[in-house]
Design brief:
By secondary structure, the protein is of the alpha/beta class. The chain has two domains: 283 residues, Aminopeptidase; 128 residues. The protein is 49% helix and 14% strand. The protein contains 14 helices and nine strands. Strands 1, 2, 3, 4, 5, 6, 7, 8 and 9 form a nine-stranded mixed beta sheet that branches. Strand 6 and strand 7 form a beta hairpin. Helix 1 packs across helix 10 and helix 3 packs across helix 6. It is elongated and about 85 Å long. The two termini are 35 Å apart. The model has no long low-confidence stretch (mean pLDDT 93).
Length: 445
């Protein structure tokens, strides 16, 4: 890494420190998230770029932030089973709760739809972006550098895994083990309640199959077990209910996730502002600060919705930068498994080639990998027809600092951020070459 890259890397690290220590946790739609947007808007103004601010509404607890509600529902369902053993019609109530929460979990928590948002408190978040044009003002394509400003609620189980930081296996069991057990308990409750509601309905309607089922020895044995199973399911659902810490003062400080991404996007934009001769030919650069990513990619979704059919989304490449801190885990994310979305193969190859050129030997072997759970801002942009991929340097398993207030800049080195800066510049050079070879219409071909 040359001295110039170190300089920009250090400046990026300074932004990370400011975000984590001066501003702190930045939950979606919170005052602190707005403060970070204002701070980055000021940074753009410092280098002569006019920031554009676009607001949108978000239900912070309508998606991942509301996972504890499923735990609370599971506890209630467990208690109601004891009433259902004496009054079978209660099974209809339990089944209704279970089905309703399952639909919400699948649609809004797993797939990031907004179907249930109207039932949750609303906040105002925003996207902030600025564009850097070539000196003559003429361009044929756009390179967008995107990252998200907000941070997650602290995940209590991950935070408690700090005691096992020297033993990753124990830490994994303390996080995934608890939540996995809780999820099994919740969906077991849903399955049992729906089955019991169907059998109860059949009995009330005088159906032979239902009457035979109720009178069978196996059903009676299972019914006896229901005097004890709700205690176990309630314990599991308590783990789900303890997933998030709801207090904003305890929110993740978001140094790695994702002040690093915001800082790198800005520093790359600043680099081209200060070195116009290095700008990709006939290219516009956009520094894009997305809000409310942790609430289900709401910022990037709002951006592509509000700009559908407009010039800003045409012939556009997006380098989404999300968490660049763990120096042994440089990687490119080529898709979101839960969102059924695969990202751009050209950008994927450009990053892999860059890692090889720079001698980056990561524990993930420098190969592309899919995001196994959740999602990142590349998904809405990819679906809008933009070539996008996500760049990260992050341990790909749950850790004590991921989505906890322990996500602090002291944990990693400015040199790692600087290397991330180098990687992004290298990929931009490759995009430039690609566009020139394809007649500045490579995205749409």
């Amino acid at each position: 890494m040359n001295e110039e890259s170190k300089k920009y890397g250090q400046e990026a690290y300074d932004i990370v420190c400011h975000a984590a220590h001066k501003i702190g946790g930045r939950l979606p739609g919170s005052e602190n998230e707005h403060k970070f947007h204002d701070y980055m808007a000021g940074k753009l103004e410092e280098i002569g770029i006019k920031p554009v601010k676009e607001e949108f509404t978000v239900a912070p607890c309508g998606s991942i932030g509301g996972i504890p509600y499923a735990g609370y529902a599971g506890i209630i369902m467990s208690v109601l089973i004891y009433f259902a053993l004496s009054l079978p019609s209660v099974w209809f109530l339990i089944a209704s709760i279970g089905v309703l929460f399952t639909i919400w979990l699948v649609s809004d928590v797993f797939l990031y739809h907004t179907w249930f948002d109207l039932f949750f408190p609303q906040e105002i978040s925003r996207n902030t972006y600025g564009e850097l044009l070539p000196e003559d003002g003429e361009y044929d394509y756009t390179i967008m550098l995107s990252a998200h400003t907000d941070t997650s609620w602290t995940w209590k189980h991950s935070l408690r895994a700090y005691r096992y930081r020297s033993n990753p296996l124990y830490g994994l069991l303390a996080t995934v083990g608890k939540v996995g057990f809780g999820a099994i308990c919740f969906f077991f409750l849903v399955g049992v309640s729906v089955a019991m509601a169907v059998i109860t309905a059949g009995s009330l309607l005088g159906k032979d199959w239902a009457i035979q089922t109720v009178n069978s020895a196996s059903f009676q044995n299972f019914r006896f077990c229901l005097h004890f199973l709700p205690v176990i399911t309630a314990i599991g659902c308590v783990f789900v209910g303890c997933w998030n810490d709801p207090h904003k003062r305890n929110a993740s400080r978001g140094a790695m996730d994702n002040a690093t991404g915001i800082a790198l996007a800005y520093e790359v934009t600043k680099y081209f502002k200060e070195h116009p001769d290095k700008m990709p030919k006939r290219c516009r650069i956009i520094d894009m600060n997305c809000g409310a990513e942790e609430a289900g990619l709401r910022g990037s979704t709002a951006f592509v919705r509000d700009h559908k059919g407009e010039d800003i989304l045409k012939n556009c490449w997006n380098i989404n930068i999300d968490s660049v801190a763990d120096k042994d885990y440089f990687e490119v994310i080529n898709g979101d498994t839960w969102q059924f979305c695969h990202f751009d193969k050209d950008l994927e190859k450009m990053f892999i080639d860059t890692f090889q050129e720079k001698g980056i030997e990561s524990k993930t072997k420098g190969y592309a990998m899919k995001n196994p759970v959740g999602g990142c801002d590349s998904t809405p942009l990819t679906r809008a027809g933009i070539k996008s991929v996500t760049f990260a340097a992050q341990v790909p398993t749950l850790t004590y600092y991921y989505h906890t207030w322990r996500d602090l800049p002291e944990r990693f080195e400015p040199e790692t951020v600087g290397l991330g800066f180098d990687c992004v510049l290298s990929v931009i050079e490759k995009i430039d070459k690609f566009q020139q070879e394809n007649g500045f219409n490579g995205v749409n071909n």
